[in-house]
Amino acid sequence: MTELPTTGTPHPLAAGLDSTRTLEFPPGFRFGSATAAFQIEGAAHEEGREDSIWDAFCRVPGAVFEGHDGSVAADHYHRMPQDVALMAELGLDTYRFSTSWARIKPGDRTLNPKGLDFYSRLVDELLGRGIAPWLTLYHWDLPQALQERGGWANRDTAYRFADYALEVFEHLKDRVTDWTTLNEPWCSSFLSYAGGEHAPGHTNPEEAVAAAHHLLLGHGLASGAMREVADKEHRLGITLNFTVADPANPANAVDVDAARRIDGAFNRIFLDPIFRGQYPTDVLEDMAEAGLERHIRGNDLEVIAAPIDVLGVNYYNGELVAGPTTPPAPDESLVFASDRGLPRRSPIVGSERVGRAWRDLPRTAMGWEVQPGGLERLLLRLEEHYTGPAGIPMVITENGAAYDDVADEAGFVDDSGDRLSFIDAHLRATHRAMEQGADVRGYLVWSLMDNFEWSFGYDKRFGIVRVDYDTQARIPKASAKWYAQVAASHRLPARR
Fold it and tell me: Which CATH class is domain 23-490?
């Protein structure tokens, strides 16, 4: 089993790294940004697009903050050329976006030429501005028609995803080199089918473990199909979101076991099948009642372990976890703190509970601890136990923070004291990990612009560019102007 953290005290790097040094990033290190289709595009029912699970979920009373939805979002579908021009002004060399399954293949029936054409035009705009497109095939917008047949809890969805992925690949592989199959399958399985926080909003542990396995199977099937027609320059990968779970009291065996459970249910349940072709024994035991092992058939694990060329790393924060102080009732489901900083149900059904403890660290508007040292630790762990032995580089495909932005009369947000500092500290953590041998090739800030933040609607703002939702004006924040200088110079200036 992969070594677990051994301390529950704040890591020396937890509150930030030495900011007095000017740091140099190597030539070729990528500086870019990331978005997701449903969060920015809008045009929810234009030119052939039909409902995704998120369109349906937004209509459920109380599911999304103040009933917000993605019907307009940041109106990127109509403003795409201007948005790409803005990326160029900021000096970004890479843009990671997702294609909408519900737009390209409405109802998962036949290809929609107008939907495909939008992404073809986006790719051409990016290339025309010298920006490398990085395409994510699935960022949570499953066609609602497939959810009505069981969604990711239905094994057939993995095969439907592989078909969709190959069709998009065939249409855009001549111009897109970097491909991600799935974004954060933890969220689209556990948070969506057990936690109830994300679409489709279910709270069934059995569905969640089925979805987790089928998402991994879909990744493997899609990767294999694309690999058969890919050229040498294509890079295929997957993006996982990670936590760094520390036991509140490392001398307490119950707390240590709580950290092990979180690490297994969050990190290793995806890492081990992809890199080792097997689920960890302890994870299978933890999820035995929910039935994870029942979903493994034939050569599934061999398919899931199809070689990848890059691992996308999404990191926002770690967590301090503890076991129960009193024995729970026998029928209580284990509860744990999700990566979004909220207690959620887990498919790990048993007699223990896992709770969150809090450290004396600053927090974002999401309530998440600001813990850049966790990113350093994560990258070094991945390099030692997973990516390094496989010879696979990493790219940080999401990292960023929501804060309660205050705009001036011109709409400008001076976020130099919070978001800018957050990004600076995490870039320093990345650089420190690289100095110690982690093979990290790029950093893509989340997010390019303010957008629909899932169940939080438009209440939380992650963008380095402010969106005025009344006028759809884009106003770069202080963090955007600073990030542009970093991207142009490959230098992280000293901050005092």
Answer: alpha beta
